[in-house]
Amino acid sequence: MTQGIDSGKPAPSATATKPTMGGLTHSEARARGQEAARSRNAALKSKLPKRSMDLVDGVPTLYQGRLMKALLGELSAKAAIRAHCEQCVGWEDTKPRVGGCTTYACALHAYRPYQEKP
Question: Where are the alpha helices (DSSP H) in the chain?
């Protein structure tokens, strides 16, 4: 067992979970965040028409909230463009695929997120 530098207490192991600000571990905080997202998504789904709900059901959970807000017109222009680009690349590996997009004919190409600064 290794000793801490400043005290005689054992140094924390590399696999120990560190508490976050609320005293929760990262996995507990993530679980709470996912549950909160599910409840927000359920509230947004109730506002959508049936045909839009079918579209949302085929989208990964991580992106559903943003897509629903875009469909309801509740996003800023920047966030709506980001949602459009994420949908365009199929919701997978979004940062590198949107940043490296070569669809120059797209009217939003110059405004896409994740692009390298000149």
Answer: 26-45, 50-57, 61-72, 77-88, 94-99
The model carries a pTM of: 0.62
Nearest-CA neighbor of 32 among 48, 20, 50?
Answer: 20
Taking the C-alpha atoms of residue 97 and residue 99, their distance in angstroms, rounded to an integer, is 6
- The residue with tokens 């059901």 is 57
Who's near 87: CB < 8 A, 6+ residues apart?
A: 59, 67
pLDDT digits 0-9 by tens, 84-101: 999 999 988 899 999 999
Question: Token pair 């365009």 is at which residue?
Answer: 88
Contacts of 20 (CB under 8 A, 6+ apart): 26, 29
pLDDT, tens digit, 9 for 90 and up, residues 49-90: 888 888 888 888 888 888 889 888 999 999 999 999 999 999
